[in-house]
Amino acid sequence: MILAIESSCDESALARFDPTRGMAGEWVHSQIDLHKEYGGVVPDLASREHLKNFFPLLEAAGLSAEPGELRQIAVTHGPGLAGCLALGIAFARSLGLAWNLPVVGVNHLRGHAYSPFIDLHQRAPEAYPQAFAELLPHLGLIVSGGNTILFQIDTSQELTVLAETVDDAAGEALDKGAKLLGLPYPGGPQVERIAQNGNAKVYAFPKAIAPRNERRFSFSGLKTSLRYRLEKMSDAELEGALPDICAGYQGAVIDQLVGKTKHLIQAGGYRSLGLSGGVSNNQALRAAMQGLAQRHRMPCLIAQPQHTGDNAAMIAFAAFADPSGLASEPFSIQPALRLAVS
């Protein structure tokens, strides 16, 4: 049994995972309402909230007195906000000392990379090793507020970065676009909601899809294009055009994500496609990736909604499924930790 601790940003989260039975419990405290009035995450406030929330979460998990069946503690050690990561690691180490349990560091991004496989394990834990092997090599896309990464897991379970953003991440582009449009935080879901009533073909935005041989995403030009367009519109014009603008802007983000993914599928014999990260909750993106996988006759594994944001379940699962990516003591916080060496 593994206890996982996640505190990379503004979610305080714990999870218990049993390799023989699956996820045994998840507990999360969200800080979204606290940070809304500031229009984004305030690092000092986020750190303070972690300090307040970890022990109540531990009590809710039934672990305030003794470790029970726990045999390992896994904690996020990067990437993320330095103060938030430090609090999570200090909490993990205090529990490790009190309960005489080993503590390992988990890469938050590798947690995202493996999160689409949680449901596969949950359905049949005993069959997971063979079922996972049959899906390799795997092509995965992580899309969040801070990262846009295409990666592969090969048949030897080595993880390699294939393409990533050179400027804004896709989620960051959606949030910044929402801010330009005057929409409240968090902006990405607001853009998605309004876009449902819009026509993506009314306003053309640059898709900036790099040539096949260029392994990169770029979204900063998209945001600039939106700003220039809004400067030419009155408030009344914007109000009437808002659904179409949101639909076109969101569509340009998705087209670039799907376009680069399609290029890499065509380049090499992958047996499965994965989607994870906070932006993977976007229903239009999910549908586009599922359609892409269907056209190439491969399964599409998408992280469950509760495992797309900052959650401890993916940290626990990565500690089990990705032992080569673990950091053993002594390890330190790594706010700029990468998914893998490109």
From TrEMBL:
GO terms of molecular function: tRNA N(6)-L-threonylcarbamoyladenine synthase activity
Superkingdom field: Bacteria
Catalyzed reactions per annotation: L-threonylcarbamoyladenylate + adenosine(37) in tRNA = N(6)-L-threonylcarbamoyladenosine(37) in tRNA + AMP + H(+)
Organism for this UniProt entry: Thalassobacterium sedimentorum
Keyword Transcription included in the entry's annotation: no
PROSITE patterns xrefs: GLYCOPROTEASE
InterPro entries with a match to the protein in the record: ATPase_NBD, Gcp-like_dom, KAE1/TsaD, Peptidase_M22_CS, TsaD
Alphabetical list of Gene3D superfamilies matching this protein: 3.30.420.40
Domain Gcp-like: 26-317
Transmembrane segments: none
UniProt-listed Enzyme Commission number(s): 2.3.1.234
Record keywords, A-Z: Acyltransferase, Iron, Metal-binding, Transferase, tRNA processing
Pfam families cross-referenced by the UniProt entry: TsaD
Protein name: N(6)-L-threonylcarbamoyladenine synthase
UniProt keyword Nucleotide-binding present: no
